[in-house]
Amino acid sequence: MKGDVMHQSESDGVMRVYGGFSRALASVADIGPLAPVNGSDAKIAAGVAVYRNNVRAAYLHALEDSFPVIALLVGDGFFRYLAHEYFHAHPPKSRLVARYGDHVPEFLGSFEPAASLPYLADVARLEIAWLRAYHAAEATPLRPDELFDRIGEDPNRARLTLHPSMSLLTSRHPVYAIWLHNRERREGKLQLSSIGERVLIARPEAEVVVTPLSAEVWRALDRLDAGDTLGEAIEAALNENTAASPAEILQCIMSYNVIIAAELDQERRA
Known about the structure:
The chain is mostly helical. The chain contains eleven helices and five strands; from the N terminus they run αααααααββαββαααβ. α1 (2-26) packs across α2 (41-66) and α9 (215-225) packs antiparallel against α10 (230-240).
């Protein structure tokens, strides 16, 4: 019994140390003693402080890698300040460092020091979409002849499966123009329009492709991604632009190589 009590006491002590260690990494306060331990509290505190700085530096670099355009837009000093504030607002919880920046868009949307750059949150969403497309599963797009062989009987009843790397983004800001200008480090000042943009992000082959879309093509892809039939998706697209051609909308979608499977909707067969 005594041995069990001692074992439990040791276990509780270990848990206190680990709990204190985790809190110390996320805190801005002095380290202080983590738990009753042997040795110098000051020495322990100094060691933890070094480790905390190294951890935060690693997460700063993770954000820089994930959001290179945001870093360019705000500059190095402001980005470091932003990363510091983000660390405390959203301390890392996932073991996947690549997911550390998942909350950056919502953080930027309410980050008062960045209020003069209202498009930052949507640029961050685009960068996250790019990163997820880069890491997405592989899939082989259907060739046009393969697609028409599968839906030729009644294209309107076709349900299409889209590439796992594909995502769609819509913004009231010219988010694609901002992202491209900075991603490619183009010379000169970008003249921003007041018109929002819709964007497709996907990696159908070796490289991630980011493409601006018309309102009708974006709507068609959005409805296909939600599970609508091709006929339903085209109908929704024509509500965006009555002058558009169904054939042109489908041809445009096919050119992006994001359709990986197609079958006729069994429920709608006569």
